[in-house]
Design brief:
The protein has 233 residues and is an alpha+beta fold. It contains 5 helices and 9 strands; from the N terminus they run E-E-E-E-H-E-E-H-E-H-H-H-E-E. Strand 1 and strand 2 (39-47) form a beta hairpin. The radius of gyration is 20 Å and the shape is elongated. It starts with 19 loop residues before the first strand and ends in a 9-residue tail after the last strand.
Length: 233
């Protein structure tokens, strides 16, 4: 098997019977929607600069060097193409339908969640552009399907895990945490019920600190509780 990848799944010359490997990454960040102004899930795409799919947008990807672990390859290619170095990077799924590319390619896909301060390091390039995740155009390969899968996984996981920490600082207010959940789920949540459920599950705990400099009652800061300390059955 040839271990190989390239910018958004470019391939080196290989025998037609070989299966090539590529690594791509779906990056999610929260930004205001340009129309509604509400926090919304965005992701960066890169423009294809060679065939196949010349000029089309695609997920960032890069070469898989034989000496690199998959996660290392994903991290390197993501930083090279977008300038991002997210702390949350996790393997998502492997996509390998026979007709997903002109040559037989299996793509190992990672997903990353980006905090606001991490997003500030993103590259400004004519071949890199951010899109609302639910409003992406027709992409190269099967990348629309990959994004759809990643969104479904994110929206499911946020209901039972602390995955929202990928978008937040280590300490946060409950209003900030609720805003992340609302952006991911695409609907408003009742503040009182949201707070009650979180505290009942033991997913977060108060730090004892507060945000200062506000004209109203200072909001309390919280942090996620390690899994082995939560109130789980």
């Amino acid at each position: 098997m040839t271990l190989i990848g390239a910018e958004s799944e470019d391939l080196a010359t290989s025998a037609a019977t070989q299966v090539d490997l590529a690594v791509s990454t779906v990056v999610f960040a929260l930004r205001p929607h340009l129309v509604t102004g509400e926090p919304t899930i965005w992701l960066p795409l890169v423009r294809r600069i060679r065939e196949p799919f010349l000029g089309q947008w695609a997920l960032p990807g890069g070469p898989l060097a034989p000496e690199d672990e998959l996660s290392t390859s994903a991290s390197k290619s993501l930083n090279r193409t977008t300038g991002l170095k997210p702390r949350y990077l996790e393997q998502l799924y492997a996509f390998g339908k026979i007709n997903r590319s002109p040559d037989r390619v299996v793509s190992i896909v990672y997903w990353a969640l980006v905090r606001a301060e991490e997003e500030q390091n993103a590259s400004l390039d004519e071949n890199v552009e951010w899109f609302v995740a639910d409003e992406v155009p027709e992409l190269a390969f099967d990348h629309n399907d990959i994004i759809s899968y990643a969104l479904t996984r994110l929206r499911s996981k946020i209901t039972w895990s602390p995955i929202a920490h990928g978008f937040l600082n280590d300490e946060f207010t409950l209003a900030e945490l609720r805003s992340v959940h609302e952006a991911v789920l695409g609907r408003q949540l009742d503040p009182a019920n949201f707070r009650r459920q979180l505290l009942a599950e033991g997913m977060v705990e108060a730090t004892g600190s507060f945000i200062t400099g506000t004209s109203h009652r200072p909001p309390a800061l919280y942090r996620f509780v390690p899994r082995n300390k939560r109130n789980e059955p």
